[in-house]
Amino acid sequence: MSNLIVRPAERGDRASIAEWNVAMAWETEQKQLNLEVLTRGVAAVLDEPKRGFYLVAELDGQAVGCLLVTYEWSDWRNGDFWWFQSVYVAPEARRAGVFRAMYADVARRAKEAGAVGLRLYVETENARAQRTYRELGMEQCHYFMYEQML
């Protein structure tokens, strides 16, 4: 039986988190990220908790994945939505319940903090992830996302 734990990220996790983000961006969008910029971005979250927080999953003592949670204020609900971002599970640990464990940890933390809901983005073609999110009780929203980079 595998030993799976989820813990808050520490500064020593910065390089792994940055590397996992590079891998995730390439796997999902064939997008090449700048590792130096990304490493500074990870450090900015670790140094300033109001931006959010990272969780790291360890399977049998080995770090195998992470996710970032950020906050979005909702005036309609007078509370924060917690957004899952930068979700990554190492290929050798996939289908072992790693994301589900991280999701459960975030859901627990969000409830304790009084958040009003959980949200995430998912690639339109990623049917496996969409199925997992539905199985966890999430529902597809009716919004499209638009973006303009500055």
Automatic annotation (TrEMBL):
Which SUPFAM superfamilies did the record assign?
Answer: Acyl-CoA N-acyltransferases (Nat)
User: What residue intervals traverse the membrane?
Assistant: none
Which keywords, in A-to-Z order, does the entry hold?
A: Acyltransferase, Transferase
InterPro entries in the cross-refs:
Acyl_CoA_acyltransferase, Bact_Acetyltransf, GNAT_dom
Q: Does the keyword Iron apply?
A: no
Q: Does the keyword Transferase apply?
A: yes
Query: Which residues belong to any copy of the N-acetyltransferase domain?
Result: 4-150
- Give the superkingdom in one word: Bacteria
PANTHER family recorded: AMINOALKYLPHOSPHONATE N-ACETYLTRANSFERASE-RELATED (PTHR43877:SF2), AMINOALKYLPHOSPHONATE N-ACETYLTRANSFERASE-RELATED-RELATED (PTHR43877)
Output this protein's name.
Answer: N-acetyltransferase domain-containing protein
Q: Which organism is it from?
A: Dyella flagellata
